[in-house]
Give the backbone structure.
Amino acid sequence: MPQPILPQAFSVKFNGLASFLVCNVGVGFSEKMNVNNVKPVADKSALWDTGATGSVISKKLADEIGLIPIGRTQVTGVNGSFECNKYVIDIYLPNHVRVQDVLVTESSGIQHDLLIGMDIIRLGDFALTHTNGSTIFSYQFPSTHHIDFVNEINELKKRIAQNSLKNSFKHGVSRMTNKKRK
């Protein structure tokens, strides 16, 4: 029986409100395909894209690492449909979060080294907060619990209402006590 995957997570804080989500990652051969023990490359730029079904590696990075295609596939993107190479890689996210055996397609039309799509995003929990004028992007893999802001707000409202009731009761008791003293 396979061992359970222990949760891993990272957060990236942006100065100001982020218009897009980019972080540094490492990229390397899938462990299964790394016959020459080639070390992964670090400090590569990855754009997180919830509109992309799958992850994409730039042709430049695939060539730099010396990836060997496992085949070709037809992909459809914003620029139409085309045939491209596909690879299996390991991705090293911030804070040593490693996603193994990711099937990626190749493109010479992306501005970053890697585009991280829903194939990776859906493996865990993906959250954005925009408090005090800055953005924090957090990702946890695998998912361990549901995040439900509506439920959290409803629970907060209940606690506030309970505290208000307690405070009004205390205030009423103290007014009654003060009247008796007069």
